Structure formats: structure tokens, C-alpha cells
Amino acid sequence: MKIGKVPTGFLREKIIGNVKNIRKEVLVGAGIGEDCAVVDLEDQLCVISTDPITGAVTDIGSLAIHIACNDIASNGAEPIGVMLTVLTPSKTTEIELEKMMQDAAKAAESLSVQIMGGHTEITDTVNQTIISTVAIGRQRREKLIKTGGARAGDIVVMTKYAGLEGTTILAHDKEEELSCYLSKNLLNEAKNLKHEISVVPEGLLAGELGVSAMHDVTEGGIMGALWELAEASQLGIEVEQSNIPVLESTKAICRYFGIDAYRLISSGVMVMTIHPEKVTHLIETLKKNKIHSTIIGKMTEKERKILIAGERVILKEPEADELYKIL
């Protein structure tokens, strides 16, 4: 099989197809595009997600916290705690492992999230460090948001810039190579994007402002996330590619490596849908909180199309992330 996410058809039939719904307390379970499970705890809902970090080396401890908590925020829920499974190869030093955990602890503290436990192991079954994170959050029942909650006619809004996470990963892990091609300013811009990886602030804000659906943009980039949003909601979508913001540092790095910024891993970006009458208030509120956001399209009844230079192109399901072509 190809590196990256399992193909949607196989995931639906062979993976999720073997999962049975046997507990009434589980309100949201395994599903295409749904990043979180939701459990009914009577007075509140418990929101749970799990995510591995497999494509990064630098700042892996910090990324592990932010990526998992981003999933929780995509349900409009407040992240409370995380548990980490850390698998490192035998070549890992004590100093590297300690630095990794210091970074994780710092990221958790910045989100007011507790590292509650986990497992740490040195193993020769991996050739680079892998961290798998389980995140737990809470949400009021009436405020629950799902990836599959979009409605036809809703406006599609994204925060920040396409390719954000992939840009900063490549800027750090390929810094020496890129320093001969990028200006110092662009390289620094790309490296500093590591501070923009969290979508918890916009997720919590948007959850209070009446968005119908949210989905954080990870593997497969913005195009993958838009397809997953439409698939989870069983709707069509129409997006103008020229409206999708891309930073100059991302454009330069993607040109150098010959990859597509729109299909590059983009943790730090949230896509959300909202009724047209509410979209102006959403954009203004995000701006007041120093969160860049852009209207990029709308949800439709059927077709999933991207408008590229005046031509309507079918939006296809995500394949292997562009990052894997480089790392």
C-alpha cells in the first residue's frame, strides 16, 4: 500500500466496516472525516481523539500536543488532557528524549492541557521517533460540532494559510539545503510558522459563534480537508483556488521541491462552515482575536469542484501527502 492515509474506500469497507456500534453512550464513532469520538457523560460530553506524528523530526514533542488538541478543537470542545506513547529508536540519546518532553510540556502548558501519562519505549522496530497522542476534551451537549454538520448553502471559511505545517517542517528539517535557495527572511518566516500550529483558539471561538461544521487541516492539505468535509456531510462543495491564501515562503519551498502547496500537510489551519448571515460576524471576531481567516467557497447539494484559472476541476479524495515525497 502507498505511504500516507489509507484509501477512503478501503477505510470505509475494511476498517470502519468491521467496527460495530455497541454502546449507546458513544454519540459519534468511527467515520470518514470525523477526527473525534464523542461519549455521552450525561451532564457533559467527552470528546476524544488520537493522532500520531510520523513525518516530522524537529519539534516533534510540541507537534504531538498541538495536532491532537487541534482535533478536539475542531468539535468546538475544550482540550483538557493528553496521553503520549513515545517510541524511539536505539540511537536516541537521553538529551534528545528529555528535550522532546520539555517541548511537549511547554506546548501543553500553553494550551492549559495536562499531560496525564502514557508510555515511553526504546525499540528497534522504528527508525525514527514516533509519538502517538490521545487527547481528551469536554463540551456542552448543545454546543457539539461535527465535521459532518455542514449544510448546503453554508459559506466555507479557512483560517491562516495553506501548507502551514509542511512549510515549517521542511524549513527545519531541510534548513541547510533550503538556505542556498531561499532568502534569510523567507526561511525565517517558514521556520517561525511552528508557532502557528494550534487551532484551539479559533476552534473554541467558532464553536460559540454558530458554525455548522469544522475540520482541522492535516494530511492531504487544504484540498484533502475540503473533500473530507464534504464527504462527512454528504454534500458537494465549490471552492475558488485563487481565494486560498498561501504564504510566499510556502510558495518558494514548494517550487524548490516541486510539490503542491494545496495538498501539503497544514495543521494550524481550520476549515469551517457557517450560514451566510453569520459569516461576517465570524470573520470580524476572528480578526479581533488576531486570527487570519478567508472565505474560500460554499457548500452545495452535489458536485465537488475547485475553480482553477476559470476551469472547474473535480475535487478528488486525498492521496499521500506531498510531505512524504520529500521526507
TrEMBL record:
This protein's superkingdom? Answer: Bacteria
PurM-like N-terminal domain location, by residue? 33-138
Q: Which GO terms describe its biological process?
A: protein maturation
Gene3D superfamilies, A to Z: PurM-like C-terminal domain (3.90.650.10), PurM-like, N-terminal domain (3.30.1330.10)
Looking up Pfam families in the UniProt record yields: AIRS, AIRS_C
Q: Which residues form the PurM-like C-terminal domain?
A: 151-307
Q: Which InterPro entries match?
A: HypE, PurM-like_C_dom, PurM-like_C_sf, PurM-like_N, PurM-like_N_sf
Family per similarity comment: Belongs to the HypE family.
Protein name per UniProt? Hydrogenase expression/formation protein HypE
